[in-house]
Amino acid sequence: MLVLQSVKGYNLFICGPDDEGRRLDRVLKKLLPDIPAGLIYSGLRKGLIRVNEKKSKQSDRLQQGDQIAVRETIIFQAKTSPPPADSGAVYTLKKITVFSNENLLLLNKPAGMLTHGDDSLASLLQSGLDAGAESLSFRPAPLHRLDRNTSGLITASLSIKGAHQFSELMRGRRLKKYYLGICIGGPDKKVKLSDRLQRTEKVTRTLVGAETDDSGNEAVTFAESLIREDGLSLCLFRIETGLTHQIRAQAAAAGFPLAGDVKYGGGRKGFRTFILHSFAISLEDFDEICGFKTCTAPLPPRSQRKAESLFGAEILNKTIEKIKIEINS
């Protein structure tokens, strides 16, 4: 957000590139989050909010460089200036950043961190980034989600352009998401899991197949065992859809639940919780806006040590390197 100056009882704001083409009322609601919508619309009707010194309608589309003038009596109680970046959040973001350009940020989310809400990845982005400081309406945010106890790659937007492009690639299924997980048992060969899933908030579980009714959503996951040892397997999952608990629920229904995933029948001695890691995101082709074709994130240290203790460090690392090559090819 660029606050130009205060002139004759008005505060002046300059639209940035991420405000281009957006409706005036929607930009104002982002700019003045503490002001009731009715007061904003009233200000527009009365000419107390103007664009380029002209009375404007709520549906007008803004352009980069447009000057919005808002009467100080309207914004007196509005929090129009973002707080300075928090040094601790800056450090944490830098530590977990895998890739970044001017449009997107790919982060290696720790297990135990929420994607949204208090003390989440979303709040970390707000506290640790200055991105969006030159926009009246845009704020960095995660573009998809991971469960609290799932670690690994998650993408955040640093511009409207990046948000739109990545979201369009997801909608068109033109990107692939790969996960690594440790399962009890495992498929004998690569399998396609296709089920209808339905959430039940009563026990916060995802129901599969026969447990669902006709309102369930289609879920498609490909799974294969990479390493087997002592009744456990390191599995590679590729998802074509992204529903809550999709891998956990489908793997359990197929007979190879994640070890330690008590909610889905994967209780096993030696596992405090399950290990599921968003390992790679791969696009069909290099994308100039996104700035990458394939991006991978290493296992968290605790998960790495656990996997090494089960499968051996040498075979584990060779297997992961082989998968990287296959995904990149």
TrEMBL record:
RNA-binding is among the record's keywords: yes
RNA-binding as UniProt keyword: yes
GO biological process, one term: enzyme-directed rRNA pseudouridine synthesis
InterPro entries named in the record: PsdUridine_synth_cat_dom_sf, PsdUridine_synth_RsuA/RluA, RluA_PseudoU_synthase, S4_RNA-bd, S4_RNA-bd_sf
Example GO molecular function: RNA binding
Annotated keywords: Isomerase, RNA-binding
Domain RNA-binding S4: 22-79
Pfam families reported for this sequence: PseudoU_synth_2, S4
Family: Belongs to the pseudouridine synthase RluA family.
The protein's name in its UniProt record: RluA family pseudouridine synthase
The species this protein was found in: Candidatus Thalassospirochaeta sargassi
